[in-house]
Design a protein that fits this description.
mainly alpha
Length: 261
């Protein structure tokens, strides 16, 4: 658990101790993500209402509204990918190797997105047996009380497994961001020595995400467009923590960097 705490502490330290630098690095991508969220709030408010409405009473939005939501949503996801790439490059391309600017070319950008899709697909395949096992373990108890302690515990366990798999496979992302691509099998093998520690990191990240999700639901008012903007910012911050963890893992496991630096 000490190594797990060191990994997460290092990832957070990079983000927090130089907040101005962090904001400067990710600002172009953050503008894209928040801009797309604002555009959805303005031009596709019906989609926000639909997501907050019970399926039984939901009213299908107009086709142009759904199209606008998909377009701005896709651009927002690419903005998130850009944010991750910029952070990977800021941390890992230092010293003599650091370029004059951190912005990636199109080959790196779309290569990163393609690998992110592959990792997501692998996680989806892994989630099928995990979901089946959780369903069998929880059974009727979850159906009768989906917010009860058993459902919460099983959800946490599922999240831990999901995050652990993601970390084992996702070294392909920082490697692609700095132009040194690897395969998911290589990522799995490289992270094998730290597999036990990564269970601890997955537990910490899943617990943190669950706490943030709960606090966000309790503290933030559910008032449509404004709520969506705040939730988007919260999810961006959560995602940035995970991106920083991946950056830390790459530096630690591939480049031999110290977790104390």
């Amino acid at each position: 658990m000490n190594t797990a705490l060191a990994i997460l502490a290092h990832a957070l330290r990079m983000l927090i101790f130089e907040t101005t630098t962090t904001l400067r690095v990710i600002l172009p991508a953050l503008i894209v993500v928040m801009g797309c969220s604002l555009a959805i709030a303005i031009f596709a408010p019906d989609m926000i209402t639909l997501m907050q409405t019970s399926p039984d009473t939901a009213v299908p939005p107009a086709p142009q509204t759904a199209l606008g939501f998909l377009v701005f949503g896709a651009i927002g996801l690419m903005g998130y990918a850009l944010m991750a790439i910029l952070w990977h490059r800021h941390v890992l391309l230092n010293g003599a190797e650091r370029p004059e600017h951190l912005h990636p070319d199109s080959r790196i950008f779309f290569g990163y997105i393609w690998r992110a899709i592959l990792v997501g697909f692998a996680q989806m395949l892994a989630a099928i047996p995990v979901s089946v096992l959780i369903g069998v373990a929880g059974g009727v108890a979850i159906l009768n009380n989906p917010t009860g302690p058993l459902a919460t515990l099983l959800s946490l366990i599922g999240g831990i497994i999901f995050v652990w798999i993601a970390m084992r496979l996702s070294l392909v992302l920082p490697s692609a961001a700095i132009g040194r691509p690897m395969r998911m099998r290589e990522s799995w093998n490289i992270t094998k020595p730290a597999a036990s520690a990564l269970w601890g990191v997955a537990l910490l990240l899943s617990g943190l995400n669950m706490c943030v999700y709960t606090l966000t639901g309790v503290l933030l008012p559910d008032i449509g467009s404004f709520s969506m903007l705040i939730h988007t910012l919260v999810y961006v911050l959560e995602g940035l923590v995970f991106v920083s963890v991946l950056t830390t893992l790459y530096g630690y496991l591939v480049e031999g960097r110290s977790l104390g630096q």
